[in-house]
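Backbones bend. We report:
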Amino acid sequence: MLQNHSIILWRKSDDPRKTFKQIAEEAFVTLSVFQNFPRQFRPNYIAISSVEKFQEVKWNYENFEKILREGINKENNKTFENLGYSIQMFSSLIDVESFSIQLRVGNKESIFYNTLVVEIPNTMNMLDLNNAELISDLFNQLAQGFVPFWGCVSNKAMMRKYKRYLINGKPTTVHWLNYWGEDIQKVIGHEYIKDILEKYSDISFERNIFKIQKKSFDIEDHVSMEFHHDVEKMLRLGI
């Protein structure tokens, strides 16, 4: 079974006083994390006019600011600045090899999130330890820059069971890699997090990143999923 993975980071709405320049500078710093990784990870292209036309991106702040400004939320000829700016960039023109990087920032309406989603190509096996270490490092760096309230590296095949990532502010399940801000920690329960860290010495919780193991859960492996179930149960998730 094909097990697709995504990095998902959700941040709450921005301060209404934040300027476009502040929004753009923060977003540029966050996405510049990709420059620390091989070229096949980086936002090298952006779609223009249609999905069949792409423009190569020269990575500097001036170019990025222009791209982001053009991504203002709009419908017909009316713009909605308070809903922020959205862009989608790609690492490769070969679809099966490409990282897709979707960013939405500058949203100032409390009912919506600012989001960063990275679709990991199917050619990158998350059960391979070397690949998993690269994605773990990328997730860590992106999370520290984006500062979400919640995030994860999601196995889409596993998520078919849960349908949603959060219900009433509580995670529906636990993932191989998780980012839990203080609000999420409170709703899960600090005592449950402490208990599981004491039981499983290999599980770590540093800088809000709850890391269960060195690579992704394999939904086709009984032992892997039993371990997932045990962790989920101890955290009172999925019930």
